[in-house]
Amino acid sequence: MLGSSERICALYKELSQFPSVSSAYIGPEVTAPNGSKFCNLYSEWWQRDLDRSQHLRFCRQYSVFHNGRAVESVAPAGACVEIQGELLSRESPSGALRAVLRSTMVQRKETEFLEIWHRSRKIKSLNLTALDKHGKIFSDDQFGCLEWSHLETHLLYVAEKKRPKTESFFHSKAPELSGSIAEKGDQFVLHEDWGEGLVNKSVPTLCVLDIEGCNIALLEGVPDYISPGQALWILDDSGIIFVGWWHEPFRLGLKFCSNRRSALFHLNFSSSSCALRNTCSFTSLNYLMAVITEMISLDNKAACSPRLSPDGRHIVYLEGDVFGPHHQCLKLCMYNWDLKASVTVLDIVRKPQTGFSGIYATALPLMCWSDDSRRVLLHTPQRSRKDILIVDIETGAVGPLTAGSEEGSWTLLTIQRDLIVVSCSAPNCPPSLKIGFLPSAGKEQEIVWVCLEKAEPLQNIRWKTLTFQSPDIQEDPKYNGLTCESLLLLPCHSLEGRLFPLIVSPHGGPHSSFDASWQLFAAVFCQLGFAVLMVNYRGSTGFGQNSIESLIGRVGEQDVQDVQYCVEQVLKTEPLDSTRLALFGGSHGGFLCCHLIGKFPGLYKVCAVRNPAVNYVSLIGSSDIPDWRYSAIGYDYTYGQIPLPDALTAMITHSPITSVGQVTAPVLMLLGGKR
């Protein structure tokens, strides 16, 4: 027996205490009387709090002493402090001010505030709920933003557009008693939202707070056929850049989908007349209205993550195709503000020929530019690890900053004044926090990392990356030579020399991937004595666009074959017990697990799946991403189409529900709306 329930719970609780860093910010540079320089580094972390059944957020600060090109020493500045109620926070460009969007309970009612902090005190607090200018704030990664104007006089954020009050035709309350005139008969009108993770988020609106006057303006000029988000000020505060997602003909789910039609827009302020609702003064910036909205990227693509260079001359962003695989290899594009034109800096990589296999990031870091405005840094999967890459925008040259390191995967948190803050981890090592100065161009590999928070590897876990090429009989001639990989975790010591039982875990998506980073469940399983095989089958991100497209039309076949082939190969070469195999996966990973227990009855002894897709047909009318059901089986998707018999037949054929009669293993199926 590998462990009693008490031991399992105790181990899970112990490993849950390792935190992960989510963001970082570097404060202003200070020169001491002796000539030495230092700055404060603010970091935010999260960890599971099992007693409170929530993710606990906390912050920690450090003092960083440096000479401008190298870190000399670091020291923690006080103890960790829990963060409560913060939706978003952002330091001003000078570092003197900090804006916080906060949600808290006031007289048993959820209330949102926008606060301005100056050093050691709060100097302003606006009750946004009481002002009633808009609906709830958007703090999600898709639309949300909180951006200071460069003069630090205004704040830009996104909120749900306020809807008129509604009531029944039979409501008899007089308007003077209700406080406003309500639209009768519309109380049951359905308002489309943007799907999973964005429920009740339907019509975002751009909001600007005039800090001095405490006035909020809802910016007009945004086309009513798009939802704006991810907004930022241009360098002279004379306009705003934002991403707009098309509504027409209806909203499709956005979470995990980088293939939704969207573009970059420039909202330009002019002084001819006033089109700002709710009267807001912009006299400090010498403009009065937002009248010109210009699309500055292609209107038939999917764009996101605009990031302005320090000199204000360029905006880099990610761009991909509309429809098809819901996540795929993306381009890195750049808009030249002087030339008013976009160019492709890094194109889609179809079949990697060098060390670079393409960009698969869902977003660029908020701060990603070098101080000279020539280089861009980003993190992205590169096969079965996540690395930080450096891109020269003038030459298009791309190179790794972290490839070949002992750490399995790296995440860029921020780069400011060429001081880089990163998080790194491995399957056997929780996340660590490191900093280092970016060397000059061409010498990036000489970077010296200094550790602020170091996590020690777990001594009882070893891991390796295994590469496989499926037999020729399973290859599509159009996409030949593709490989798949697996991350294998093994306990360092077996019990009395026995072989290890194996838990097989294919990832979800399907167009996502496992990278060689800290994975709580895998670490717990391994500490309990299990080996864990995390499979990146063909179709995973990080291996080139050809690999992604090879799965289209072959879902439920190629991915199942790849997982099974990887299992068969490791059973031949590793100290694993072929009579004790288990399956564990969620979403599309659960889809694959359900296929495997039906197609290989008796081989897998037990199966646990979370929100598995077991029947594609039933998802057509209930999923917020119906286009994927068509793409998965190799059919083109168009809005409004009615499923035809051949498409329905293909969907059911590709689904694991067809093998349910062959299942003999016990299955634990976890279904729910919350993760």
UniProtKB/TrEMBL annotation:
Entry GO CC: cytoplasm
EC numbers on record: 3.4.19.1
Subcellular location(s) per record: Cytoplasm
Residues in Acylamino-acid-releasing enzyme N-terminal domain copies: 10-459
Record's keyword terms, sorted: Cytoplasm, Hydrolase
Pfam families: APEH_N, Peptidase_S9
Single GO MF annotation: omega peptidase activity
Top-level division of the source organism's lineage: Eukaryota
Reaction(s) this enzyme catalyzes, per UniProt: Cleavage of an N-acetyl or N-formyl amino acid from the N-terminus of a polypeptide
Domain Peptidase S9 prolyl oligopeptidase catalytic: 522-668
Biological process annotations from GO: proteolysis
Subunit structure: Homotetramer.
Family: Belongs to the peptidase S9C family.
Protein name (Swiss-Prot/TrEMBL): acylaminoacyl-peptidase
